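BUG: 3D viewer hangs when loading the predicted structure for this chain

Environment: internal workstation, default settings.
Expected: structure renders.
Actual: progress bar stalls at 90%.

Input used:
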Amino acid sequence: VQLVESGGGLVQPGGSLRLSCVASGFTFSNYVMRWYRQAPGKERELVATISGAGGSTNYANSVKGRFTISRDNAKNTVHLQMNSLKPEDTAVYYCNRPAGGTLWGQGTQVTVSS
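Structure tokens produced before the viewer hung:
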């Protein structure tokens, strides 16, 4: 049972990145999935949530209108499309399954800098 994130990197302000999280070992479509982030010296912050079927999403106010969470249940994958990135979006981004025994990925670093 695991979550593996990818897609992080260095991007200039105003740029875009697409994060992916591949799940294995459980029935992916049965679970709400979330993306969190943690910046240096700060607490981990909930960024976005998506329902099991993908029909319902929620976002932190700080990313609303810029980030989009989506999922492909056939591929056991959840994505986070990040547009109009700002330096304050710099953080390690984590994929999370909040129920059935909390599960975290290893994280992927996103750095927004010129």
